[in-house]
Amino acid sequence: MLRQRSSEQIRVDAMKVALRKATSGCFSCVDSYLALAEEHGATALELQQVRDSIYRETGRRVRRRKLVKMLATGGLVAAGGALALETSNHLSSHAALSVQWGTDSGSQTCCDMSQHFYIGRLGYGGQPLGDAYYFNLNAAHAAGQDHTFGYWGIVGPNSCPAGMSPSDWGKQQATNAWNAWNHGPNAQYVGGMTLFGDLEPGFGGWTAGNYTRNQQVLNGFLAHLYDITPKATWPGLYISSRYWSSLLGTGYRPATDFVLWICGCSTCGGDICSPCNFSCNTQRTVQNKLGSSVVNTTLGGRKPVVWQYWISDCGCGDYNVMTQQSSSLTPALGSTTYHVTC
Fold first, then answer.
1. CA-based nearest residue to 115, from 319, 326, 332, 330
2. Which residues does the chain have with pLDDT short of 70?
3. CA–CA distance from 322 to each of 87, 176, 224 (Å)?
4. Where are the domains of the chain?
5. What pTM did the predictor assign?
6. What whole-number distance in Å separates Cα of residue 239 and Cα of residue 267?
7. Residues 290, 297, 307, CA angle at the centre, nearest 5°?
8. What is the pLDDT of residue 70?
């Protein structure tokens, strides 16, 4: 009779197998085993320490698979039924980082709100070098180059150039976005390495329910952006749960890891204080909502790293909160593919 393994043993084994799969070259296998470890009790700190050590702490000039190998041979040890993270000169553990505050598009912070970061538009679709619209220079200066990020409007498959597949259309847009990051009108102000794709019908070419072709565009965009950006840099994606469901399908999980910037999730909710309202505490209400529901939402297997909690349609501007403090953001793993809590 086979003996059933305890949750603790499954947790430890899943972490071991994740590392073994990564060192054997199957980096795409890692996420599922980390998700299994989380389901069987791995703490958020354990998982975050692993991701931080692999993706962020080793440096951009080391190839991604080598990062995992270095951690496996010198950083991660399973002993006594518990998972331990050991550190060396190039690998260190960190406590949870404080929440960061910022804006996007045409908005700069006001009313004593901090400008820790800013995310400006770089362009959209087939523009070879992007454009200068919806980029606030004052916000970029206040945030600083390393914490000024860019986003690119992704155009859907209905607007593919003649003879081009949806996947190649996504790749072309990733190329244009990275060209704009490097050489576009506002390139000199942008130093944040994570570049976000903005997926919403307003950029054109998207049809609800056209899942396969829509997914092909996004797959091409994310995969190619991953390939052409510096090492240890992950692509980002701005999207709402409603658009994810209608355009991509709730069962869809992109093959390429990504940093989720979520919108339309309790945005301008009644229990959130407007950043322009001096009679209530915006930071406290946003952090309460972030911790109680937003961070538990999962789209495509990823939890939010950035949350747009206020939009200009509600007055005051476009405001965001970020759970990391880095110029190169790290994907946050979710244990399910699609789960909306806000």
1. 319
2. 1-9, 18-33, 44-98
3. 26, 26, 25
4. 7-85, 100-339
5. 0.73
6. 13
7. 45
8. 32
Q: Give the side-chain half-sphere CA count within 13 A for 39.
A: 12
Q: Helices 7-23 & 64-74, crossing angle to 10 degrees?
A: 130
HEC readout, 72-100 = HHHCEEEECCEEEECCCCCCCCCCCCCCE
Judged by phi (left if over 0) then psi (alpha if -120 to 50, else beta), residue 91 lies in beta
What's the pLDDT at 42?
77
Helices 166-183 + 211-228 axis angle, to 10:
40
Residue with tokens 């794709």: 197
- CA–CA gap between residue 244 and residue 269 (Å, rounded): 20
Q: What pLDDT was estimated at residue 78? A: 31
Task: Please tell me the distance from the alpha carbon of residue 7 to that of residue 64, in angstroms, as a whole number.
Answer: 30
Kindly list the distances between the CA atom of residue 319 and the CA atoms of 97, 110, 125, 310, 329, in Å, as whole numbers in the listed order: 19, 10, 24, 5, 18
Can you give the pLDDT at residue 46? 66
- Which CATH code for domain 100-339? 3.20.20
Q: Cα–Cα distance between 294 and 306 in angstroms, integer? A: 10
State the residue for tokens 């505050």. 101
Q: DSSP label at 55?
A: I
